[in-house]
Amino acid sequence: MTEHFSQDDVAQFAREGYRIVRGLLPVEARKRMRAIAERDLAAAAAPVEYEADTHYPGAPESRDAPGGRTVRRLLQAYARDVVFSEWATAAPVAGRLRQLLGPRIALAQAHHNCVMTKDPAYSSLTSWHRDIRYWSYTRPELVSVWFALGGERIDNGCLLLLPGTHAMDFDASRLDTAQFLRTDLAENAALLRTQIAAELEPGDVLFFHCRLFHAAGHNRTARTKFSAVFTYRALDNAPLPGSRSAGIPDIVL
Ligand SMILES: O=C(O)CCC(=O)C(=O)O
Question: Cα separation of 142 and 139, whole Å?
């Protein structure tokens, strides 16, 4: 596996805000990640976030409601097992990130840094948003890396992307109070028609910009979907002091 994007890949990332690398994650590493995730999901091994905590459409009302203890994220994935720390910093990942972010980079432990688990019975719907909305950095220039630990398709709630939106400015009136893109506005309708589904095979890896609007549906299959996700910044793009983004020391690559 090469450690770099081609020039075309870099240009596409700049234009569209994402790039998928097919088969980047070797089978053995993927199986190990998945086994750890299945083990930790069965034990709800802390720290976790529950679907009920999100209050997203379709999520259980509270932790005490039916399905209320459905895990949505196994948090702090970097520290869960060496397979995560190795692959979150591996040359085929870091080499590509350096092309997008610059030569000196860090993994932001405060954001993503999790295994997303999407349960068939109680998964919620994630509306259109930009990850940067609640993150605090000098510049809105971070990249997330999404490792598919199984197949990801529309029927199990793969990511949906709005290509190019990382480079667009949006008037606040086009967003709701939680900064989700409003789907009830004619002004947003044409943009929403440009959505693409980021369908992934096991081991495929999606790189996407923190300003790229994305969403995801429910898992309508019988199997839990697992994806490991990490976020990176240039070393000189520091988290703002006192913010949640500065809450955990980052890992310098
Ligand atoms: O898998 C999903 O439901 C989407 C997750 C997502 O977009 C996020 O956590 O930012």
Answer: 8
CATH class of segment(s) 7-61+68-119+135-152+202-209+219-252:
mainly beta
Chain-centroid distance, C-alpha 215: 10
Q: Are strands 48-50 and 71-75 parallel, antiparallel or unpaired?
A: antiparallel
pLDDT confidence of residue 198: 98
Ligand 1 pocket, 188 CB below 6 A? no
Q: Ligand 1 pocket test: which of 117, 214, 220, 225 has the largest number of ligand atoms within 8 Å of its C-beta?
A: 214
Question: What is the C-alpha to C-alpha distance for residues 179 and 135, in angstroms, rounded to an integer?
Answer: 12
pLDDT score recorded for residue 48: 95
- State how far the alpha carbon of 151 is from the alpha carbons of 196, 199, 234, in Å: 16, 8, 30
Distance 126 CA to ligand 1 centre (A): 6
DSSP annotation string for 169-228:
---GGGB-TT-PBPSS-HHHHHHHTT-EE--B-TT-EEEEETTS-EEE----SSS-EEEE
Q: CA 173, CA 170: separation in Å to the nearest integer? A: 8
Domain residues of the chain, as ranges? 7-61+68-119+135-152+202-209+219-252
Parts of the chain with a pLDDT under 50? none
* pLDDT score, position 71: 84
Closest CA to 29 of 182, 219, 247, 202: 202
Q: How confident is the model at residue 95, as a pLDDT?
A: 98
